[in-house]
């Protein structure tokens, strides 16, 4: 049995992976960086803009799977430095309201495409 996947219209992939794998009740979204856009030209962004673009890319893929940020149950955030934590949280709080999804945030040595943040999530389909 093959995997059921969705691909964002405006999002590229920086490796051999699917944007989202549909596992029925749950959808597993691959991490997105600000620099995964189709047509990205190499410009660099501050952490707030990178965070917004990560969620924009995830939302683009979510539209293809007919779900939204309101359906997100778990988020994983990877930062190249915890000095970005507060700025990332400021954007995050604009996109999610209480009760917030479960979340993990960790610092990593580096990320693909020289990004400072990568975000992945899990979505549960509404019954």
TrEMBL record:
<protein>
    <submittedName>
        <fullName>Endoribonuclease L-PSP family protein</fullName>
    </submittedName>
</protein>
<dbReference type="InterPro" id="IPR006175">
    <property type="entry name" value="YjgF/YER057c/UK114"/>
</dbReference>
<dbReference type="InterPro" id="IPR006056">
    <property type="entry name" value="RidA"/>
</dbReference>
<dbReference type="InterPro" id="IPR035959">
    <property type="entry name" value="RutC-like_sf"/>
</dbReference>
<dbReference type="Pfam" id="PF01042">
    <property type="entry name" value="Ribonuc_L-PSP"/>
</dbReference>
<dbReference type="GO" id="GO:0005829">
    <property type="term" value="C:cytosol"/>
</dbReference>
<dbReference type="GO" id="GO:0019239">
    <property type="term" value="F:deaminase activity"/>
</dbReference>
<comment type="similarity">
    <text>Belongs to the RutC family.</text>
</comment>
